[in-house]
UniProtKB/TrEMBL annotation:
InterPro entries: 6-hairpin_glycosidase_sf, 6hp_glycosidase-like_sf, Glyco_hydro_88, PolySaccharide_Degr_Enz
Protein name in UniProt: Glycoside hydrolase family 88 protein
Keyword Hydrolase in record: yes
Organism: Candidatus Eisenbergiella merdavium
Record SUPFAM superfamilies: Six-hairpin glycosidases
Length: 362
């Protein structure tokens, strides 16, 4: 852990993370941002073609990951500025009636619980309760797996594990409603049973729960990150007496070994982990490092893995320019639909900020 602390204390680190924090606070309210060309296309589709467009959602998973980064900084250094930004963000959502469109919106749940615990204001716990109720009523397959998109009634994504399971476990324990803990654990266990590639030890992006067919690329970086985060952050709150605790811990250890074996010499992870000669992806790198550090802090992973976390942190720091994290892969469009565009995106910014916030807490 000493190496992580030494990295945090460098002047360059402090300056870059402060700039990243400031940019994330503004980006939280600005995303999604459309170019003039994109706005024109939306207008044509809506008003001329009479196409029903998806709602403009300022509380989807990219915003939630920015909130998670700011929340972790607030926890790590008791930063009042980040807390004020989060209060404004969530108060605005509550005032709007908290529209919940997709499973993605539930990614905000953990930061809401953080804010409730730091402020003691019950409105944030009540808001978290609304997210929990939304997930309870959301469409599921026959086994109780949350369907990521209702139109794809049997497609189960790794993303869902990271987006909802830590929140469900934590909320269920906080509220005393064990059904939510069970729901969170169920998502993890079923994905580990049905979504993994036995040969490599890496996950597919997802699977069809009706046919059992697995989809997407084996070892897509963010799928690995979502799954590892879901496991590690759920284990962080689950009691060790939980029946599935050791099962999940064992899989986290195995997946950590499989992923670490594919970490590049510069500390990064590729957009597709086995693609050593392909582009690095800062979002996947940050997510995997966050999961490793969460596992170490819980005692579920050996402390030796801090070397891999430190290498990832150094790489990420080298990618921070003008308060943004470069070399982040663009948004995925579905199974095996990974646009090869790289730049600055909220999921790279938010998860990098979260990692350095976690390092402050160590």
């Amino acid at each position: 852990m000493e190496g992580l602390q030494e990295l945090l204390q460098r002047t360059e680190t402090i300056q870059k993370i402060n700039a990243l924090q400031e940019q994330a606070a503004g980006e939280l309210f600005a995303w999604p941002a459309f170019t003039a060309k994109e706005r024109l296309k939306r207008a044509v589709r809506k008003y001329l073609l009479r196409t029903q467009l998806p709602p403009l959602d300022h509380y989807s998973w990219p915003n939630a990951l920015l909130a998670a980064g700011l929340s972790q900084v607030q926890r790590g250094v008791s930063d009042n500025k980040s807390e004020a930004v989060l209060i404004r963000y969530f108060d605005r959502w509550i005032k709007k009636g908290m529209p919940l469109y997709y499973v993605d919106n539930a990614t905000n749940g953990t930061a809401l619980l953080d804010l409730y615990e730091s402020t003691g204001q019950k409105k944030y716990l009540e808001a978290a309760s609304r997210i929990a109720a939304f997930l309870r009523e959301h469409k599921k397959d026959e086994r109780g797996d949350l369907v990521y998109r209702i139109r794809d009634a049997s497609d189960i994504y790794a993303d869902t594990v990271g987006m909802v399971c830590p929140f469900l476990c934590r909320y269920g324990l906080l509220s005393g409603e064990s059904a939510f803990v069970k729901m969170g654990v169920t998502q993890i266990v079923h994905f580990l049973d049905d979504g993994m590639d036995v040969k490599s030890g890496l996950p597919y992006h997802g699977f069809n729960s009706r046919t059992g067919i697995k989809y997407g690329c084996v070892g897509w970086g963010r799928a690995v990150g979502w799954l590892m985060l879901g496991m590690a952050e759920s284990l962080a709150v689950l009691p060790e007496k939980t029946p599935q605790f050791l099962f999940i811990q064992g899989h986290l250890q195995n997946l950590t070994r499989a992923a670490a074996a594919l970490q590049r010499k510069d500390g990064s992870f590729s957009w597709l982990l086995p693609a050593f000669e392909g582009p690095a992806d800062t979002s996947a790198t940050a997510m995997i490092a966050c999961a490793m550090l969460a596992g170490i802090r819980r005692g579920c992973l050996e402390e030796d893995w801090t070397q891999q976390v430190g290498a990832a942190a150094k790489f990420l720091l080298s990618c921070v320019k003008n308060g943004r994290v470069e070399r982040c892969s663009a948004e995925c469009d579905g199974f095996a639909q990974y646009p090869q565009r790289y730049g600055c995106y909220p999921w790279g910014d938010g998860m990098t900020l979260k990692l350095f916030g976690m390092m402050e807490e160590v």
